[in-house]
Sequence to fold (349 residues):
Amino acid sequence: MTDIVEKLYSTGNLSDSELEQLILTDDEETAELLKKYADETRRRYYGDKVFLRGLIEISSYCKNDCTYCGIRRSNKDADRYRLSREEILSCCENGYELGFRTFVMQGGEDPYFSDDVMVSIISEMREKYPDCAITLSLGERSRESYKKMKDAGADRYLLRHEAASEELYSKLHPKEMSLQNRKKCLFDLRELGYQVGAGFMVGAPFQTVKDLICDLRFLQELRPQMIGIGPFVPHHNTPFAEEKGGTLELTLRLLGILRLLFPKVLLPATTALGTISPIGRELGLKTGCNVVMPNLSPVKVRKKYDLYDNKICTGEEAAECRGCLQRRIESAGYTVANERGDQIDFKIK
Ligand code: SAH
Fold:
């Protein structure tokens, strides 16, 4: 089995059947070698740096009804909130002091955040923080909308494709959503000059190894600058409440594979990974990850951005979160980089 890892490391690719074997094997020597090469590869391009992204969860209102997600519109028990422009800007002020040089505005698909509202917030952030990257994660919008926000100063966009197989995508989403539109959004974003992030959940209900390979192949086609993956974690108020969540081992396996398929990619050790294991993010960092996304949202709304059960980091102030993550990063053998952290070689237009 270790020869498959050797091949992945030296050629940067594998056949479908080799990927399948590597995803499924429980051989420990293979897992160790994958981890070693993943770490070596991230160090070749990024040294021991870990980039921080200050995550501002701007709204828990959502017009979509994704089956897995706790803030889906059918969850009538969800406690909804949206941040005001002043609250968002005050999160940035706080984050800037803490050393963050990337702000991520993420939210449900909330019509309140129209193009005009977003353009005005982004323009002000751009003016106040010329040295920071502005990342958006606001779901599917029109090409015109993405363009307006790019022109206002946004740099990056995170939009996980969620599942690149039609069959799985349709099991995880309501019928009014389509994989085709999600993919179109990603290609529009790339064409408009955004640094783009795609990704998927590991261990989602109905997901097979073939589906995972399909995700990897789609990523090879898209060539995103960022790839966000994390375990699926059930939420008690969704149709998937009784489903099993994704495992630590499988998520780490995919992180290692992703690092070797995409040596220069920005790869976060996600909050969901930290939720299923107390040392999940540290293990992620040791398996090729080079980004963490501490929460900058006001503490009073943290619990309401309730995507899945037992989500961590919902109680601390931003400064505590930042301190906790710095300790975790250093304990894993890496250092915090207080910089924008663009993908190496990405040409900013
Ligand atoms: N509305 C935005 C942001 C969605 S929330 C968008 O559509 O992109 C960010 C990510 O959280 C989603 O892309 C999804 O992959 C993940 N997520 C949602 N529910 C989850 C769950 N139950 N377990 C793990 N991850 C989940």
About this structure: The mean pLDDT is 97. The first strand starts at residue 49 and ends at 52. The radius of gyration is 19 Å.
